[in-house]
Amino acid sequence: MNNPTPRTISIASGKGGVGKTWFSITLAHALARQGRRVLLIDGDLGLANVDVQLGLLPSADLGAVIAGSMRLADIVSPYEPGGFEVIAGRSGCGDLSNLSEAQLQALMTQLDTLLPDRDHILLDLGAGVGGSVRHMAAWADMLFVIATEEPTSLTDAYATLKLHSLDKPGGDARLVINQAESYRGGDQTADTLTRACVSFLGRAPNVAGTIRRDPNVSDAIRRQTLMLQRHPNSPAAVDLERIAVSL
Fold first, then answer.
1. Edge-to-edge strand order for the sheet containing 8-12?
2. Closest by CA position to 47, among listed 90, 99, 108, 2
3. Which residues, at least 6 apart from 150, have a Cβ–Cβ distance to it below 8 Å?
4. What is the predicted pLDDT for the residue at 129?
5. pLDDT score of 156
6. DSSP state letter for 226
7. How far, in Å, CA of 218 to CA of 247, rounded?
8. Domain 8-245 has CATH 3.40.50.300
9. pLDDT tens-digit readout, 80-104
């Protein structure tokens, strides 16, 4: 791959319910297992759930940072089972999902100060294509767009890629097909979307890979455990680790 190793990575989907947060958590864990220093930030400023999937009870979250009572560096929590760090988002505060340009820029400035001590900062963004999501996606070196084989997911993934191409022309966007019935189905889905991008945007995203549908994902989420620990040899775990190694 010609692109340099991305240090800041945003993960978006457009549509909710496609496994974006699971992907973000498991990618953070996979990178940490490679010996990298990783900080995972729940950037869903309205419906955060990284802490829920990990079984965490954070004492502070992004809401305190937005309110100005704390700094990002103050709310970093180590997640020892995974060997990475976490910053929790804030659920149930819709006002956080539509921050002003000045508030977003202040948040990004604080994010920059966290980078020197880490190899990667991962931002699990909220669903949709609102202003906050677009701003945080454009801040990162690279954007993962998570989609499934469902037509509605592809439509929303295309919208995400289109807006990202406007916000960050020439940016490094990579497509992941999640919950695929097979590699062949995932490849066909990715081909459909990339051809649409070439036709209407003049440029296609790189295809990072396909993650096969795996009932063990639901088991790990339900038990609030890490996929690579509980089911390390399952199809989805193997597929995601292949993507992580490519970074």
1. 77-79, 84-87, 38-43, 120-125, 8-12, 142-147, 172-180, 206-212
2. 90
3. 15
4. 82
5. 95
6. -
7. 26
8. yes
9. 999 999 999 876 555 556 778 888 8
